[in-house]
Design a protein that fits this description.
The complex is a heterodimer. Chain A is an alpha/beta fold. Chain A has nine helices and nine strands. Chain A is globular. In chain B, about 85% of the residues lie in helices and about 0% in strands. The chains are: A alpha/beta, B mainly alpha. Chains A and B meet through helix 3 of A and helix 9 and helix 10 of B.
């Protein structure tokens, strides 16, 4: 059974599609890169997958997964960095699935949190307030939380934006570790070199699917050109969309 | 001498003991709520809600005079009604919630003062607007203590989702549906504590014992637990010192309490360990690492 199944999905805002008529499957354990220019609908698609955005049309099936089996790392998290919370407590929220509203953080859980913080290279940062971290350190913290969520589907929205080479390498190693553990990983990315070298499957998106398949076959200059030429603006006078994807007189 | 000034009033007069107990109960429950109001950038929402309570309390006053049960019930009803109405208007019209709250609270204040002045005297009006903690009877004290207990229990239940929703609302939405109910429960706690403070400090100052201690705490710690503790202590100290000040100088008790809290706030702004002005002006030599 597929980890993710898109059935003619259209996602968007105010009836305007941002991702138009996407169909396809993601196999369990796949490592999928979602690429496309700004405004191509990458974030919209990921928001649809994690259930924050309801499809305008079509459906997304999660292959029996619960919303709690998904770990989602948004592009610009609405995190209030001025809130007085320590790295330890913040990363610890990743254990929500186990602790819920009242569950205590016992010795085993504390160990787990400390290990997660250590594995993103932030030893000694446990008691620092998150407001004092740099952008790269905050991204490491967010990865540590994803690590604790122990999710079978991991959705990362441009996780390496504005991050230096060392941090990118460290975090990419984590992504590959998750892949090795059989988790399904989807990541919206811009770095073609990284996609080519590390991601086996690629979806090229430009307000709709341009190509989807093994990276070597999909990442062609032609496909990228098609994606680049995509029109970004919503057409305010657009007609209602017909079933076949072509415009219909309203 | 010092004993006479600082402890004497409380051993000598029962109304002072009751007032002290009330102000401590208010501090225990109100200050943590205030910390969350501040951290969620809702300080002024709390202020607006405080005004919104007035017409309800005024109707209670109209029906049964200065009966604190009736006024409390009226205040609770009005507070919840305005909180929900403002939310509905904001959600259904796209008007920002603060703007719609501002409208509601101005209307409520005007309505409340009108209702009180229909039946009552200027003294009654002063009582409603600024409270009178020294006039508290046993029953009222019990109500205040009960509300404070409920507040602490509910806060314990919603603490975790409330914290996570304050830091990273999107994350909470992806792992749990507790965010919405927690937010509503929190708003309910705000109303309950405003009504509570209303007994002691009146509609106009009720929010003072919530927000000012929170502001003070922010200058002394970066840790949430510590901030809550500091806020509670600051509120209790302001309450106690305000009562003594009021007793010795005949200043009205509500304003005296808030004035003491203000003095503590100014001291914190100047000398606070976290972001205090003096600390910023004279940070000391930079560290090695």
């Amino acid at each position: 059974m597929a980890a993710l199944h898109f059935h003619n999905v259209t996602l968007g805002y105010d009836r305007h599609p941002a991702v138009h008529h996407l169909s396809g499957e993601v196999a369990p354990g796949a490592l999928v890169a979602v690429i496309g220019p700004n405004g191509a609908g990458k974030s919209t698609l990921l928001r649809g997958i994690v259930g924050i955005l309801k499809p305008l049309d079509g459906s997304i099936h999660l292959g029996g997964l619960d919303a709690r089996d998904i770990a989602y790392l948004p592009q610009s998290a609405e995190i209030d960095r001025s809130f007085p919370i320590s790295v330890f407590d913040f990363v610890g929220t990743g254990l929500w699935r186990g602790t819920g509203l009242f569950g205590g953080i016992g010795k085993a859980a504390r160990e787990k949190i400390l290990r997660a913080i250590a594995s993103v290279g932030l030893n000694g940062f446990e008691n620092r307030p998150i407001g004092t971290l740099s952008g790269g350190q905050m991204q490491r913290v967010l990865f540590a939380r994803v690590l604790l969520q122990d999710a079978s589907l991991i959705v990362l929205d441009e996780p390496f934006n504005a991050i230096d080479g060392k941090t990118t390498a460290d975090l990419l190693a984590l992504v590959k570790l998750w892949h090795g553990e059989g988790r399904t990983v989807l990541a919206a990315l811009h770095d073609m070199e990284m996609v080519r070298n590390h991601f086996s499957e690629t979806l090229v998106l430009a307000r709709g699917p341009v190509a989807w398949g093994p990276t070597a076959e999909v990442l062609t200059p032609e496909n990228l050109m098609v994606a680049m030429r995509m029109c970004e603006a919503f057409d305010d006078s657009a007609a209602a969309c017909g079933e076949d994807g072509r415009s219909q007189a309203a | 001498m010092v004993y006479d000034a600082l402890i004497g009033p409380f051993t000598e007069f029962e109304f002072m003991r009751r007032a002290l107990a009330a102000v401590i109960a208010l501090s225990l429950a109100g200050a943590p709520i205030g910390v969350f109001l501040m951290l969620r950038r809702m300080s002024l929402v709390g202020d607006a809600m405080a005004h919104a309570i007035l017409p309800g309390a005024a109707v209670g006053f109209l029906l049964s005079g200065l009966n604190l049960f009736a006024m409390t019930a009226g205040g609770l009803i009005a507070g919840f009604a305005v909180a929900i109405l403002a939310g509905v208007v904001a959600r259904s019209t796209g008007l920002k919630e603060d703007a719609s709250l501002a409208t509601f609270y101005l209307a409520s204040l005007a309505l409340g003062v009108t209702i009180v002045s229909i039946k009552g005297t200027n003294i009654d009006l002063l009582h409603v607007l600024f409270g009178n903690i020294l006039a508290m009877d046993d029953q009222t004290l019990l109500v205040v203590a009960f509300n404070a207990t409920v507040t602490l229990l509910v806060l314990a239940v919603i603490y975790r989702p409330l914290v996570i929703e304050s830091v990273d609302p999107l994350f909470l939405r992806t792992v749990s549906r507790a965010g919405g109910p927690a937010h509503l429960a929190f708003l309910a706690l705000v109303v309950i504590n405003l009504v509570n403070g209303f007994q002691a400090l009146g509609t106009l100052l009720a929010v003072g014992l919530m927000i000012l201690p929170a502001g003070i705490a922010r200058f002394w710690s970066r840790d949430l637990t510590a901030m809550i503790c500091i806020a509670v202590i600051a509120a209790a100290v302001a309450g106690y010192a305000g009562l003594v000040l009021s007793f010795q100088t005949r200043v009205p008790s509500g304003p005296a309490i808030i004035l003491v809290a203000t003095v503590l706030y100014i001291i914190s702004v100047l000398f606070g360990r976290v972001g205090g002005i003096v600390r910023q002006l004279f940070p000391g030599r930079h560290l090695e690492a």
